[in-house]
Amino acid sequence: MHLAQKLTQQNVLKRVLWAYGIYVTISLVAFAIGYLLLPEGALRGSAITIWGEVAAQQTSFWLEFLVIIGFNLGIASLIGIVVNLQRVNGLPAGYVFIFVQGILSGIVAGTNSFVSQVISPYTLEGWLVALRIGYLEFLGYVCIVAATIGVGLRDYTSWLPWKAKEIKVKSWRDIRLSRQEIIWLVIGILLILLASYNETVLAFSS
Prior knowledge:
By secondary structure, the protein is mainly α. The protein has helices at 3-8, 12-37, 50-56, 61-83, 94-110, 124-132, 134-147, 179-205; strands at 86-88, 91-92, 154-156, 166-168. It has one domain (3-205). It has 8 helices and 4 strands. The longest helix has 27 residues, at 179-205.
């Protein structure tokens, strides 16, 4: 089965498992590249970590929690859904957003470029923290993107703009989410809320 077919099949759970498996693989490869080939802290202070700087400046637990939620749900998730409006050769572009995030998050962790360094990502404890914050958060993103592939309005025949031909898939009023897609959308939101809470607790317990 073609990758686009695996990521757009009717069963949302299978979409999530395929997409998350690809994300984790990409993230681990990027981690290894960052750890082995790049200097420690190489991305600290870059645009990639700027949102962490804003969150780290907050002195109130609930204010930092709201800032983190605002980014994770109000920005990152929204980008994933908006990008999903487009497809390329049948592949919802929201998945590309997820896979690019896998590269960035892996390199940030591999180079130990976190703004607020509480626990080293090179330790077992660091990996356990990553599982209940970063990987949990991105599982939420995957659920949201996988649940909203039905918003796709346009399909393009190529990733190259000068070669791509646009095919109209549906109009705005034709957008519908199935019951299981709505359930997985809610699950994704809850996972991101939980990961955001875990991140805030970790920051204030240090």
